């Protein structure tokens, strides 16, 4: 079912229907390997990598990681790919969400459950209100490494290396904490394993049972306007389920949900050490997550991230910002998905509310006209970040909605399917994005700002977003 050639080497791009160029062979390579070595990847001068002071410690961490069992099974990646193919065909909608940056301290039962719960609530709203199957994908169990626009951070008269996520260094603003430590990569593996284990237990063990729709609507959400709206919808679902049960439909089918994991594939040592040959297909898979994506800052066509991702058989994503040309996107598709396999490639656009209506139409039209098979998903977060007067990084809820609305309008005009939503959110009552029904102001940000990187929608804002998007989907 995976359409990649058995040896997913560079030759495979030569016959691409997009006319992708095969590129130059690796220096000194005797035969084309299915996965380039770490040294070969580093020879491509990868962007956004940690500057580790101790090479031997890096090797030790990589050796340890190579011995660890896979976090996901390749067959599960294929299942997700089939679901994403349905998204690309316009038959399903992707909901991808979670923290900007997970932290080791955040690996708790409450935190994981709360994130899962808000995603389940959003998925129910989207599914029920728009009658579209929703593919649920957590931005979790591996989202620990961050690209940064600056290598350094200055506070007062002290300048230190920037925080690059718990995968790399510590958030504390001290020289010791900011030194990149490769043993953290092993900690990422363990934290991801613990998170994934709990998520798997929740989604198969009864917590995600559709008969629990009411119980997900708890505490601070219950008293909110959107919580009341959700309660009404949950009551309708209850009624529909009682009806189905009464006529003999097996509602036990609704006890579990499909849920998959994803993160940005950023630190090459980690992703490479967890790339393994699947015993069924002999194809390489990155078994650190079901889905991995390439960020806006690391999507260079000849760069190491695109190179590594071009060799694995997982479903993958690429972020596309406002500077992306249609030629860039077509070349990325040719290299990353030379056989044009449905479900393999997801383009995640993050243009900004003020730019999407200008930048997305020409991109989408040309890429679509070139016959590129891809799911198109909207990240309405990363083009809309600004610094509040108080110094907090924030986003306006209205800008998020405006970008999603622009995304739907452009797809409608071009005749393509607005395939999904990629959002930074938390299941908690944080104050990181301004606006929404609770009308959070810039002055409110100090109340409960917990993100170590970008601002996330809180649980009420996330639910509000899902109702608004359900409305847009119904019209689409
Ligand atoms: C992110 O998703 O947190 C991120 C850094 O996004 P982008 O690569 O689109 O800037
Ligand atoms: Mn982010």
From TrEMBL:
<feature type="binding site">
    <location>
        <position position="139"/>
    </location>
    <ligand>
        <name>phosphoenolpyruvate</name>
    </ligand>
</feature>
<keyword id="KW-0028">Amino-acid biosynthesis</keyword>
<feature type="binding site">
    <location>
        <position position="454"/>
    </location>
    <ligand>
        <name>Mn(2+)</name>
    </ligand>
</feature>
<keyword id="KW-0104">Cadmium</keyword>
<keyword id="KW-0057">Aromatic amino acid biosynthesis</keyword>
<feature type="binding site">
    <location>
        <position position="382"/>
    </location>
    <ligand>
        <name>Mn(2+)</name>
    </ligand>
</feature>
<comment type="similarity">
    <text>Belongs to the class-II DAHP synthase family.</text>
</comment>
<dbReference type="GO" id="GO:0009073">
    <property type="term" value="P:aromatic amino acid family biosynthetic process"/>
</dbReference>
<feature type="binding site">
    <location>
        <position position="319"/>
    </location>
    <ligand>
        <name>phosphoenolpyruvate</name>
    </ligand>
</feature>
<dbReference type="InterPro" id="IPR002480">
    <property type="entry name" value="DAHP_synth_2"/>
</dbReference>
<feature type="binding site">
    <location>
        <position position="424"/>
    </location>
    <ligand>
        <name>Mn(2+)</name>
    </ligand>
</feature>
<feature type="binding site">
    <location>
        <position position="350"/>
    </location>
    <ligand>
        <name>phosphoenolpyruvate</name>
    </ligand>
</feature>
<feature type="binding site">
    <location>
        <begin position="296"/>
        <end position="297"/>
    </location>
    <ligand>
        <name>phosphoenolpyruvate</name>
    </ligand>
</feature>
<keyword id="KW-0170">Cobalt</keyword>
<keyword id="KW-0808">Transferase</keyword>
<dbReference type="GO" id="GO:0008652">
    <property type="term" value="P:amino acid biosynthetic process"/>
</dbReference>
<comment type="pathway">
    <text>Metabolic intermediate biosynthesis; chorismate biosynthesis; chorismate from D-erythrose 4-phosphate and phosphoenolpyruvate: step 1/7.</text>
</comment>
<dbReference type="Pfam" id="PF01474">
    <property type="entry name" value="DAHP_synth_2"/>
</dbReference>
<dbReference type="GO" id="GO:0009423">
    <property type="term" value="P:chorismate biosynthetic process"/>
</dbReference>
<keyword id="KW-0464">Manganese</keyword>
<dbReference type="InterPro" id="IPR013785">
    <property type="entry name" value="Aldolase_TIM"/>
</dbReference>
<protein>
    <recommendedName>
        <fullName>Phospho-2-dehydro-3-deoxyheptonate aldolase</fullName>
        <ecNumber>2.5.1.54</ecNumber>
    </recommendedName>
</protein>
<dbReference type="GO" id="GO:0003849">
    <property type="term" value="F:3-deoxy-7-phosphoheptulonate synthase activity"/>
</dbReference>
<feature type="region of interest" description="Disordered">
    <location>
        <begin position="1"/>
        <end position="22"/>
    </location>
</feature>
<feature type="binding site">
    <location>
        <position position="100"/>
    </location>
    <ligand>
        <name>Mn(2+)</name>
    </ligand>
</feature>
